[in-house]
């Protein structure tokens, strides 16, 4: 029991601390966000709403499933994450690339690339039943994102080199934005205020474009500099060695980075919204880019064929997926691995190789954060990786699985891809 003489001091101290906290929050300027976008709950951690306890009422009736698009067999496999068994399979359009949660969390879209032209389509899946609906004809839907305000879907037409803004439900065309100078426009992530996005350019030597989401126009191009990469690597790696043991002078000659330059893949923003992490399949690591200044500020080596990026449920770690190959066709049982990057220290705190080799590619984290689900693209399997130990369960699926998604996932809304949740 607190003595009466101390009670007043205790209450006074509590009140003072409360007022300090309130004042600190009051002094923090509110973010000037894209009109119509949900407010940013915690400006210090834009992943604050994807925690394991943050499932939206919109996904309350969704079946717990893992949906796997198989690029070469033109089908979707459905896995029960509790039993690790395939429980369904159905045909979709040609060359399904990714399974994408809609902005309102009510639909999962299969992006069927077709022949990367007019034969493409989007197939809706009802997450309450796990069953597909009628496909909608859409040109070249390699990937799919949503504007932070939910007004538009963004079809990433990779081969056509453009971004198509469409109605987020009916998928009717609203406007097209050509992306000249961005060969193989590919993956994206959005600023903390929703006012711009950065897209990766996979081919033609690699690079990035910055897209103004207010005016819907390109406002910058950035080439990722190999000289900076080598300088950073020489400071961070012992004895001047790259992750696979090759000397840095080999990288200069293009052995590890590619004669044609880089090949940026997935991209993810840091919890504070200041730095974008860019996976580069030829650089075997992630570039760090200042989003506001739109300039390269660092590089972190991870593993061979760096490809996918997924934040942990608590927003403290980034799972970096190394596909184990620089070749877009790849091979079975390559030196694939997952590197665990600490957002705060920017250090690799763990590395989990795929036992007996593999080709981890795309996926996401389970709702409870206990498993990282990834396609094994060139091994025709799916990996369920224990995020506590790195132990791997392997599940056979169709031919060349690609951008799988886990559903449901926590979050208020989806920005697209395989579950870029906010």
Question: How would you describe the overall organization of this protein?
Answer:
The protein is mainly beta. Helices cover 9% and strands 38% of the residues. The chain has helices spanning 4-27, 226-236, 248-252; strands at residues 65-70, 75-80, 85-91, 96-101, 108-112, 121-126, 131-132, 136-137, 143-146, 153-157, 162-166, 173-178, 185-190, 196-201, 207-212, 217-222, 264-269, 275-280, 285-290, 295-301, 306-311, 317-322, 337-342, 348-353, 360-365, 371-376, 381-386, 392-396, 405-407. The strands form 7 sheets. Strands 4, 5, 6, 7 and 8 form a 5-stranded antiparallel β-sheet that branches. The longest helix is centred in the N-terminal third of the chain and has 24 residues, at 4-27. The N and C termini lie far apart (44 Å).
Unreliable spans: 1-27, 228-260
**Cα distance spanning the termini:** 44 Å
Radius of gyration: 22 Å
Average pLDDT confidence is 88
Proportion of strand residues? 35-45%
By helix and strand content, what is the structural category?
Answer: mainly beta
Describe the main β-sheet briefly.
Answer: 5 strands, antiparallel
């Amino acid at each position: 029991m607190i003595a009466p003489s101390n009670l007043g001091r205790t209450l006074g101290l509590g009140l003072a601390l409360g007022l300090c906290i309130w004042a600190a929050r009051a002094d923090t300027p509110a973010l000037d966000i894209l009109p119509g976008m949900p407010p940013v709950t915690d400006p210090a951690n834009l992943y604050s709403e994807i925690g394991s306890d943050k499932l939206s009422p919109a996904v309350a009736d969704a079946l717990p499933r893992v949906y796997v698009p198989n690029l070469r067999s033109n089908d979707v496999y459905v896995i029960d994450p509790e039993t690790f068994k395939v429980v369904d399979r159905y045909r979709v359009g040609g060359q399904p690339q990714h399974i994408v949660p809609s902005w309102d969390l009510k639909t999962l879209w299969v992006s069927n690339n077709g022949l990367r032209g007019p034969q493409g389509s989007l197939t809706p899946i009802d997450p309450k039943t796990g069953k597909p609906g009628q496909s909608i004809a859409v040109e070249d839907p390699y990937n799919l994102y949503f504007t932070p305000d939910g007004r538009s879907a963004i079809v990433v037409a990779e081969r056509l080199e453009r971004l198509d803004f469409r109605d987020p439900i009916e998928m009717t065309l609203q406007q097209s934005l050509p992306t000249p100078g961005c060969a193989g426009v590919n993956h994206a992530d959005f600023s903390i205020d929703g006012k711009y996005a950065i897209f990766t350019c996979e081919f033609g030597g690699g690079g990035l474009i910055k897209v103004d989401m207010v005016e819907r126009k390109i406002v910058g191009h950035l080439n990722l500099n190999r000289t900076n990469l080598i300088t950073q690597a020489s400071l961070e790696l012992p004895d001047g060695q790259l992750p696979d043991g090759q000397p840095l002078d080999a990288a200069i000659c293009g052995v590890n980075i590619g004669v044609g330059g880089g090949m940026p893949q997935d991209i993810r923003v840091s919890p504070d919204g200041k730095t974008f992490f860019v996976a580069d399949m030829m650089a075997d690591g992630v570039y760090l880019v200042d989003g506001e200044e739109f300039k390269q500020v660092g590089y972190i080596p991870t593993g061979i064929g760096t490809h996918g990026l997924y934040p942990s449920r608590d927003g403290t770690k980034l799972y970096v997926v190394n596909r184990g190959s620089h070749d877009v066709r790849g091979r079975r049982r390559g030196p694939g691995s997952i590197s665990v990057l600490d957002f705060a220290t920017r250090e690799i705190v763990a590395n989990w190789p795929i036992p007996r080799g593999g080709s981890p590619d795309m996926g996401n984290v389970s709702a409870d954060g206990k498993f990282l689900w990834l396609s094994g693209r060139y091994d025709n399997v799916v990996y369920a990786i224990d995020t506590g130990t790195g132990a791997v369960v392997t599940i056979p699926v169709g031919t060349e699985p690609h951008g799988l998604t886990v559903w449901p996932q926590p979050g208020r809304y989806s920005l697209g891809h395989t579950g870029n949740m906010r």
